[in-house]
Every structure is written in structure tokens, then in C-alpha cells.
Here is the input.
Amino acid sequence: MAEEIKKHLQDILNKIDGLQCILFTDRDGVPLLKVNTEKVPESVVKPSFISTFCLAIDQGSKLGLGRTSNLICIYSQHQIVQMNKLPIIITFVASENCNTGQILALEKQLDSVVGVLTSTVAET
Here is the structure.
């Protein structure tokens, strides 16, 4: 089952020009599933970087903005798109010129993967 999911994710990675990594983690940044190209910088897939997303969504809710569903950060050479599917966080790493809309459109396609990983996290 895990190999089928990885193959599906690798196909998605190859279809979107500039997408370099799809990473599923728990809210602490612990990696559960990852597919990537050789171009992805290691610093953006470290648990300490990923876990800051949960801090950011908590701060947003304290400001009365409601539940955060997505967070997009664009840097000089990369963009990071994170989706809140608690207890799962999906992180996409892409080049700065990758189409962000294409990444956001993947949300529904990945719901089945999130369901499998959520049940796995709940069991442990």
C-alpha cells in the first residue's frame, strides 16, 4: 500500500513543473511520507522548520482569524505551501516560479492519502 501511495505522489510531483517535494508530517514535524527531487533543500524539510506551521496557525486563531487551512510562504528561490489537515500537515516545496494554484488544487486529490495516514497516526 505504501509503495502505491508513493508512486501516486511521485506522479503528481512529476506533473507539476517546479514542484520539488511533497511531505506528510504530524503536527510536530515528524515525517510520515515524503517524495522529492534532488533539488529540494534539506533545511526546509527538517522537523523544526515544519513544526513552525502549527505555531503560526495557533497564532492566527488567537487573533480571531478562524481556523487556518493553508499557509503560503515565498522566498527568493523557493515557495512553501502547507495544508492543515490535522493531525496531518502536508508540505509542498517548489521553485519560486511554480504555479501555486496547481499546488492548492491538489488538496482534494490528497484526501485519500491523508485518511490513510490519519488512521496510522491514530493507531500509534
